[in-house]
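Data deposition worksheet. Section B asks for the primary sequence of the deposited chain exactly as it was used as input, without tags or linkers unless they were present during the calculation. Section C holds the resulting structure in token form. Section D is free text for depositor observations; keep each observation to a single sentence. Incomplete worksheets are returned to the depositor.
Section A, Depositor: J.P.
Section B:
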Amino acid sequence: MPDPTPEIERRLLRRAGEHHGLISGPDALRSGFTQSQIDRRVAQGRWERVHPGVFRVAGSPETELQLLAAAALWTGGAASHLSAGALLDLTPVAARPHLIVDRDSSARRVGVVVHRIGDVLRSDLTSLHGIPCTNATRTCIDLGAILSEPQLERVVDRALHRGLTHVDRLVARFLQLARRGRPGTARLRSVLRRIDPALAPPESDLETMLVRVLRQHGLPEPVRQHRLELDGIVARLDLCYPSARLAIESDGFAHHGHREAFERDRFRQNLLVLAGWRVLRFTWRQICTDPDGVAEQVAAALAVRP
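Section C:
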């Protein structure tokens, strides 16, 4: 059978140039090539077989992106985990391509990390540099299975700060996927608890935790829910030492997480300062991870009387 026309081959090579110098076998067959014509080009060294059914045009530069794109073409999957993290500029480039494929896929190849997962939705996917990959939300969740907690926290923080995902979106998808036994669930939950209202303790629990910290460090018991009037406005303090005019606020998210509450809270704090009060604020994370530092600051404030 004669070779495809030069125009057909030029179109195929032009498409390869737009896809990291790669040609897929099925695409070549659809374009008019036969399997024997494909094999002949491989034998002649014009095309180089990278994976079964995936070819590199001879002379095209071998790059990390090409390696990843070839693996995605071969498996029919999408870049995920460390590879998706690298595409999103959230993690360094992975030593080997990571691909997420359907649970029933039989793809297996030395040099490629294949993750068989059955709960990938179309909304979990995007495309970067012409390569299908998991989006930032799904990538953060999947990375929980292979990164340490500090590494994962850095990735999540970076994704949030760059606007690649949002707390609500991340938590909603996490809750859909979280289940007992899923790798990395506990690690990601721990990270999300530091930033999300739904996964942090309620305000009353924060106050209880803070009182316990003060008590364990030998500090006086604070007054809870102290009521006072400031410039005609009635305020209620979570914890305070009235004689020292020291207010202590535990910053959870559920109460302070929206704009109106944020503005009201800051206005109230200004009134306290103008009335001669000092205010210390502690977050859930500070109370849990640095109780010594919290107690030290309260003790220092009590030592300095207004």
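Section D:
The chain has three domains: 6-57, 64-193, 203-303.
Confidence is low (pLDDT under 50) at residues 253-257.
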